[in-house]
Amino acid sequence: MSVAADLSEADRAALRLAVTRVRDVPAHEILIDDGDRPEVVHVVLEGFACRYKLLSDGGKQIMAWLVPGDFCDLQVAVLGRMDHTIATVSASRIGAIDRAQIDVLFNTSPALSHALWWASLVQEAILREWLVGIGRRDAAGRMMHLLCELHARLTAAGLAQDDRFTFPLSQSELADTLGISPVHVNRTVQLLRHEGLIEWTRNELVFKDVARLCSLACFDPNYLHLERRRRRGAHLDGRDAS
Amino acid sequence: MSVAADLSEADRAALRLAVTRVRDVPAHEILIDDGDRPEVVHVVLEGFACRYKLLSDGGKQIMAWLVPGDFCDLQVAVLGRMDHTIATVSASRIGAIDRAQIDVLFNTSPALSHALWWASLVQEAILREWLVGIGRRDAAGRMMHLLCELHARLTAAGLAQDDRFTFPLSQSELADTLGISPVHVNRTVQLLRHEGLIEWTRNELVFKDVARLCSLACFDPNYLHLERRRRRGAHLDGRDAS
DNA sequence: CGCTTAGTTGATGTCACTCAACCCTAGTGG
DNA sequence: CCACTAGGGTTGAGTGACATCAACTAAGCG
User: Fold this and answer.
1) What is residue B40's predicted lDDT score, i.e. its pLDDT?
2) Confidence check: pLDDT of B235 > 50
3) Mean of the per-residue pLDDT values of chain B
4) B67-86 residues touching A, CB cutoff 8 A
5) Smallest CA–CA separation between A104 and chain B, in Å?
6) B:24-53 residues touching chain A, CB 8 A cutoff
7) Residue range B14-25: average pLDDT?
8) Dihedral sign from CA coordinates of B12, B17, B23, B28
9) Which of A170, B37, B172, B219 has the most CB atoms within 10 Å of its CB?
10) pLDDT score recorded for residue B228
C-alpha cells in the first residue's frame, strides 16, 4: 500500500519533501482524535498504528492496521473532520504533511494525485474484506485471513523475511480488531499454534506453513491490488528492499 | 452521498452530460462482477443496488447499499479490476459513464475531482461504521443503526417523506447485510415492530419514532459528513427536492 | 388451483461471551 | 538477590445470543 511504489523519481522526491515534522511517538498514543480537524496528514514511517472507534459501552473496534508506508488520515484533506481515532500500537516514527501541501501535490502532479487516490481505495478494499470476515467467518477463519493479509502487505513492503515479521499487538488488541473477546482470541491463537501454523512469541510472528494457512483461510490477495506495484518495497524514505 | 450536491451548475451539467447509456435494469441483476475490468462507471439514478462478496461456502456478505445518486464502481477508474460484485436489489435505472470520461472530468475540474473523491471517502466512512456494527453491536443494535443510517441518507437525498420511504430488500438480503441469519433477522424485525419503532409492509418502511430509534441505536450521523451539502436533495438529474 | 417465494414460529444445538482464578514475565524497589 | 507489583496470557465453568433445522403460513402468479 506504500503509495510511493509506482511513482517517478521526481514525484517520490516531491512526496518526500512534503513530509515535514518527522517525530518518534511512543506506543498507545493518539495521533488524531475523533472530531479533530487537523491541519496535517500523518504517514507511518516505522512501527504500527491503527484506526478505531470507541462505543458508548466502552467497547472498541479497530478498523485498520497502518504499517510503514500507509497514510493515516488522508481523508481529512477532503472531509475535514475525523470520524474516528488514530493511535500508535507500537513505538513508531510518524511523518506529517501539511494539509495545504496535499492540495498542492494534488493539483500539480496527476500521477501523484492518482497514487493518493489509489492508496485510499486500497484501504477501502481492505476494509471491505474485513467486513466480510467479521460478518461471515468464524473466529479461526477471521484470524487466519487477517494474518495472511498482514503477511502479504508486509512482504510486499519488504518488511517480512522468511515469513517472519514483528507483530507488536497484544491479544486484546487483536480481539478488538476481530470483533471477538480476548479470551476467545487466546484459544484461537492456541489452536493455530497446535496446528503448527504459526509461532507467536512476544513481538514476532512466524508463519510455519504459509500455503496451508492461506488455503485454510481462503485467502485471495486480489483485493490488495498489489499487481500494480512492480517495484516491490519502495518506501517513502527512498529505500528499496532488494 | 449524491456527489452533485455541492457543485457549480457548470460542473453538474458536465457530470450530467457524461452519463451516457441510461438503462432500466430489473431486480437482482449483476451490474459488474468480481474480476471484471469494466470500461464504464455506473451510477444509480433510481432504485437500490448493493455491493457484495460471495464466499466459498456459499455465504454472501453485502458491503454497501447504493441508493440514487451513488456511484457504484468509481474505484475501477483507478484500481482497474473489481474485487467484488455489484447487483441491483430492486428494479433500477442505472447510468453509465465511460472510464476515460472520468479521467477527463478528473483532470479538467478540480471541484469535480474533489467531489468524486469526497463521494468515495464517504462510502469508506459508511463501511467503517458497518464494521463497527457487525463487530461490536448485537443484532438489534446493528439493525437499528443501519436503518437510522438509511433514513439519514435518504432524507438527505430528498427520498423520504414523513419518515417513510421505499425499502425493497427482503429479510434475507437484510441478513446478508447484517451478518446474521434470516431467521434471526425475522425475530429482530418483530422486536422492533412490537416496540413500536417501525412498520415494514411490503416495500415501504415507516419510522414510528425516529428520535427513540436513533437514541437506542446510538446513532451519530457525523460519519455521513452531510454537513457539506447545503443544497439538500440535489441529484444528478438536476431535480431538487423542495 | 397448484406452484413458488418470503415470512413466521418452535425446538434444539453451538460458538463465543462472561466471570473468575491462576500463571508467567518484566520491571521496581528494598 | 529477593519480594512485590502489574499487565499480559492461560484455563475452566457456566451462560447467552444466535445458528440450524424443520414445519407451517401467507402472498403473488401462471
Assistant:
1) 92
2) no
3) 88
4) 75, 78-81, 83-84
5) 12
6) 35, 51, 53
7) 85
8) negative
9) B219
10) 58
**Cβ-based contacts of A131 with chain B (< 8 Å):** 61, 63, 127, 130-131, 134
Q: Do B75 and A124 touch (CB under 8 A)?
A: yes
Nearest to A86 by CA among A101, A72, A67, A102: A72
**pTM, two decimal places:** 0.91
Nearest chain B residue to A62 by CA: give it.
B132
CA angle B225, B230, B235 (to 5 degrees): 90
Of all helices (H) and strands (E), which one includes residue B173?
helix B171-178
Q: For position A3, what pLDDT does the model report? A: 65
Task: For chain B, positions 210-229, list CB contacts with chain A under 8 A.
Answer: 218, 222-223, 225, 228
Q: How many CB atoms lie within 10 A of CB B17?
A: 11
pLDDT tens sequence across A182-192? 999 999 999 99
> What is the residue-wise DSSP string for A166-225?
E----HHHHHHHHTS-HHHHHHHHHHHHHTTSEEEETTEEEES-HHHHHHHTT--GGGG-
Q: HSE (CB half, 13 Å, CA atoms) of B75? A: 29
Question: How many angstroms away from the CA of A79 is the closest CA of chain B?
Answer: 7
Confidence of residue A2 (pLDDT cuts 50, 70, 90): low
Q: Are the C-beta atoms of residues B99 and A102 closer than 8 Å to each other?
A: no
- In whole angstroms, C24 C1' to A42 CA is 38
Is residue B94 within 8 Å of B45, Cβ to Cβ? yes
pLDDT of residue B149: 97
The answer to whether some atom of strand C lies closer than 7 Å to the beta carbon of A143 is no
Averaged pLDDT for residues B7-13:
73
Cell 513530509 locates to A19
User: Which among B129, B179, B223 is the nearest to A135, CB-wise?
Assistant: B179
pLDDT exceeds 70 at position B50 = yes
Residue B1 touches chain A, beta carbons under 8 Å? no
Which amino acid would we find at residue A58?
A: G
Q: What CA–CA distance (Å, rounded) separates B79 from B120? A: 13
CA–CA separation, A185 vs A174, rounded Å? 7
What's the CA gap between B133 and B144, in Å, rounded?
A: 10
Q: How far is A136 from chain B (nearest CA, A)?
A: 6
- Residue pLDDT, tens place only, B113-138: 888 888 889 999 999 999 999 999 99
